[in-house]
Structures are given as structure tokens and as C-alpha cells.
Design goal:
Blueprint lengths: L13 H18 L6 H26 L4 H23 L4 H32 L3 H10 L3
């Protein structure tokens, strides 16, 4: 197991914590993937990460979260690297899967304990209704 869920990653926001647990699980699956499964595992991880980051960014936009640009820029950088690694793996360089997994395992706790902690606190302090925002997005009302 490359990264273990721990209290240090717990934000106290159920939705974010559930998404982050899944992120850690998928990261570990990627790190343990056999070469033949590597691209599928990476695609699964990227799809989750796109949805994960997209949800956080939708909340930040709806709340007019002051450090949105900084948070979004970090998300975009991580996704860009993931997509580059996918291209490298598809091109016959599977060792980049482990390089990516290790780098994400180092990056994610720092991101969660800094940027995501601030986001979770802002949600709590402003009383932003995440569930209502998600329902509005799904219904097309937002």
C-alpha cells in the first residue's frame, strides 16, 4: 500500500472525506497494477480525479471562494501531469506509472492538509449547502 488513509487526511467534511478515501484507494490500485492493467487503472484514476477536482471547483465557484484560482491551478497541473503519464504509458513507457503514483502519494497529503482543509473550513464557516449545490447542478438549475 503506497498511501494509507489516516486521521491526517480526514477533513471532517463527509463529502470531501469520502471522495478523498476513494482517491487514496484508486491511487493504491494504480501503484499495485500489473503492467497489463496499468493503463486501465490510470484511466480510472484520471476519471475519478477529474470528477473530484471538478466538484471541488464547482463548490468554490458557487461560494466565490477567494483562493479559487490558486486551488484550480494546482488541480490543472496535477491533471496535466496525469495525462502526460497516460500518453507515456500508452507509448510503451510503463515505468512512469510508478513514478506518477509515488509523486501523487507525496503531493496529496500536503494538498489535503493545506488547500482542501481551507476549503472544508470555508464551507463550514459560510454554511454553504453542498448537497443543495450538487442537486442544482444535476437538475441543470445552477
Amino acid at each position: 500500500m503506497l498511501l494509507k488513509w489516516s486521521d491526517a487526511l480526514h477533513l471532517g467534511h463527509a463529502g470531501m472525506d469520502d471522495t478523498h478515501r476513494e482517491f487514496v484507494e484508486l491511487l493504491n490500485r494504480l501503484s499495485e497494477a500489473a503492467e497489463g492493467d496499468l493503463l486501465a487503472r490510470l484511466n480510472e484514476f484520471i476519471a475519478h480525479t477529474e470528477a473530484h477536482f471538478g466538484q471541488e471547483e464547482a463548490w468554490m465557484e458557487a461560494m466565490q471562494f477567494p483562493p479559487l484560482a490558486c486551488h484550480r491551478t494546482e488541480h490543472e497541473g496535477v491533471l496535466e501531469i496525469m495525462r502526460e503519464v497516460r500518453s507515456r504509458i500508452a507509448g510503451g513507457e510503463p515505468h512512469y506509472g510508478q513514478v506518477l503514483a509515488k509523486a501523487i502519494a507525496e503531493w496529496f497529503p500536503l494538498h489535503a492538509q493545506s488547500m482542501d482543509t481551507v476549503l472544508a473550513l470555508y464551507i463550514q464557516q459560510t454554511g454553504f449547502d453542498v448537497a443543495a449545490n450538487v442537486a442544482m447542478k444535476k437538475s441543470g438549475a445552477a
